[in-house]
Design goal:
By secondary structure, the chain is α+β, with helices and mostly antiparallel strands. It folds into two domains: 169 residues, no CATH class; 135 residues, no CATH class. The chain is built from nine helices and 16 strands. Strand 1 and strand 2 form a beta hairpin. It is globular, with a radius of gyration of 25 Å. The model has no long low-confidence stretch (mean pLDDT 88).
């Protein structure tokens, strides 16, 4: 998240949340931080808000009723009565403690924060943040000792690496608020932060559909295409480039149009259609056949669409287009493969 210099950090409280299955305790704070130091206030604001992408939006949910989502209820209590901040934060910490029973869940500090003037599109609105620090790093502290210097080691939190976070904007309450989520630990192991504690789902919007569709295309071209059709690396890169070009130049996505313009061959198109169905089931997402393309999602995915052809450890060839100007062959005399590249000018 950018443009956070004018964000007002109104209140912060810290609770210690352990793992009950290991006998670790829940230690609740009685009061919020004083926040008298403006430097510390600015560092905390950056630590809390910088990792979020406001385009990746979620919303609170519940199998029975939204009103039964505990975090949703506690957050609503703070929004409606800021004086209940300390008591509601204790309820949040207690609920997280009860959900921290997986063997891989680490003990850590839960920060609950209340913000004002947080940028959201063209608006500035209130928000509440939940942040958990689980990873400690060792820092060296140098200090004067007489006429010399000494060094000691201290464990602390790296303010450039937020482990887990959730930012709830005071917007769309009836639909479960607008929620942004960060989870940089235990992604493959527990998902307790997203599924068990927060109980949020991705908001079905153009950013979500664009991001999911591009992610699916990349995996299909990089893995499935080669397994079924033995496509060489240069052709894979060409497919990736054409996919990004499609999303970058079109205002809306149409599955049939994309398949025809990018994949061309009927057998590849059939394989892609089947893969889409499998991908949606495996990832528990629904990618619409038509949707408006969100350029912010395209720019995000563009960073992981690699257009580099790596040849042993000697050469890297960057391919940006014109697959027809590249030829692949095999030289029997040397027993090596080769690429022949045609060009007009050398820069």
């Amino acid at each position: 998240m950018t443009n956070i210099n004018d964000v007002q950090l109104e209140q912060v409280i810290i609770h210690k949340v352990g793992n009950p299955t290991r006998g670790e305790e829940l230690k609740l704070s009685a009061n919020a931080l004083t926040l008298n130091d403006e430097i510390v206030r600015g560092m905390l604001t950056k630590y809390f808000l910088s990792p979020f992408n406001e385009h990746e939006q979620y919303q609170f949910t519940h199998l029975s009723s939204l009103e039964l989502n505990e975090v949703y209820q506690y957050i609503t209590g703070i929004f409606e009565d800021p004086k209940s901040f300390v008591s509601q934060s204790a309820l949040l910490a207690s609920f997280l403690y009860n959900k921290s029973t997986h063997a891989r869940v680490k003990e850590g500090e839960l920060y609950v924060a209340r913000f004002g003037q947080v940028p959201f599109g063209t608006e500035y609105i209130d928000a509440i943040g939940l942040f958990k620090s689980e990873t400690k790093e060792t820092f060296l502290k140098v200090f004067p000792h007489g006429q010399s210097w000494e060094v000691i080691a201290e464990d602390g939190v790296n303010i450039n690496k937020l482990d887990k976070g959730c930012l709830i904007f005071k917007k769309n309450k009836e639909e479960g608020y607008v929620v942004c989520v960060v989870d940089n630990t235990n992604k493959q192991d527990t998902q307790y932060w997203v599924n068990d504690f927060l109980q949020v789902i991705r908001t079905s919007n153009s950013y979500h559909h664009t991001d999911a569709a591009l992610g699916m295309c990349k995996l299909f071209i990089s893995n499935e295409l080669n397994e079924k059709f033995e496509v060489n690396k240069a052709d894979q890169i060409d497919y990736l480039n054409k996919s990004i070009e499609y999303f970058s130049t079109k205002e809306s996505f149409d599955l049939n149009e994309f398949a025809t313009e990018v994949l061309h061959h009927p057998e590849v198109i059939d394989s892609f259609t089947q893969y889409k169905q499998q991908y949606e089931v495996a990832r528990q997402v629904n990618i619409e056949d038509t949707f408006d393309i969100h350029l912010a999602a395209v720019k995000k995915q563009q960073r992981v669409f690699k257009s580099v052809l790596k040849l042993d450890k000697n050469f890297h060839i960057y391919i940006h287009g014109r697959r027809d100007l590249i030829e692949k062959g095999y030289d029997e005399m040397s027993g090596k493969h080769f690429y022949k590249i045609y060009f007009d000018e050398e820069n």
